[in-house]
Design brief:
This protein is of the alpha/beta class. It has 15 helices and eight strands. The chain has helices spanning 18-29, 34-41, 45-54, 72-85, 89-96, 102-112, 128-141, 214-232, 235-238, 248-251, 253-261, 279-290, 300-313, 316-323, 326-335; strands spanning 115-117, 151-160, 171-173, 190-198, 201-202, 206-208, 241-243, 265-266. The strands form two sheets. Strands 2, 4, 5, 6, 7 and 8 form a six-stranded mixed sheet that branches. Strands 1-3 form a two-stranded antiparallel sheet. Strand 4 and strand 5 form a beta hairpin. Helix 2 (34-41) packs across helix 3. The longest helix has 19 residues, at 214-232.
Length: 343
Amino acid sequence: MLKNVNILDMPRGKSLSLEEITKINTYKEFGLTNREIAGKLKRSHGLIDNYMRLGEKYGKNKRPGCKSLLSSRDKRKILTTASKNKLSSSKIKHKLCIPVSSRRVRQILRESKQFKWTKRQGKPLLKKVHLACRMHFAKKYMAWTDEWEKVVFSDEKKFNLDGPDGCQFYWHDLRKEPEKMLSRNFGGGSVMVWGAFSFFGKSPICFISNKMKSADYIDVLEHGLLPMIENVGNTEEREWVFQHDNASIHKAKNTILWLNEKNITVLEWPACSPDLNPIENLWGIMVRRVYENGRQFDNCEDLRDAIRRVWDEISVADIRKLAKSMPDRIFEVIKKNGGHTGF
């Protein structure tokens, strides 16, 4: 039974967000103690106790907000800039030099109701068996936090000369015709790459064939994965775990034999789950930087040079942020009963 406690008795500090409250309730359903929940959310034990005592009354008495930093004229400039320049919210903020966050810019655009943020990106169809496997995976690893630091995430990615496959997006003014991207027949050519990263570093970028066989994949692992593991530290101390999806060349007999010979532990991976792999977000960063300002390429060598340059510029902060997102991804799967996450 929740006790009635005056909200004014709560200690001052940053309140729990709606997302944190949802996580607390979910963790409680799985039998975690308040102290264990506090550790997972990196919040104080007392704050979690306060929420559990207050229940639905938590956060109801909110302090009045601050006066808006933007005038009506500033808000009109944001709408006009989004309509004319096809920019993201962060670029609109920097272009106008306004004293608010990108999040506030997005809020203003959504409130206008004449803009729509659309991303032309498909998601794999999840059948019942996929949902069950994703839930099994999430429950098995829901207790992992720092353990994700030892996982090496990997994937392949295709880059087209004319730009990404349906991943360009901007704030579209619904009163105007959609922006179209010029393209040549069949994309004008493409480049395939393989990459990997962990909390401690990233692999060399490897350019690969569109039609790899098991032997080709093993060669990529020889020149990409092994040098990475050697460069980022002591293999025995960290007990590296390698992640790749369920592609046929990854599951081929010769590939499995090679991984066993090298004593590389492979993380079980649920099918149709690119949203669980943080390297997909790393590819997103790469795409935005390679094709910045709508850039297109005349030949594959120029595209390779751009990919190498952008890959080398990916910082440790970038990859560590992605590695640390795994507990949130796991929680989202549980919250959605195995369904698609927002990652």
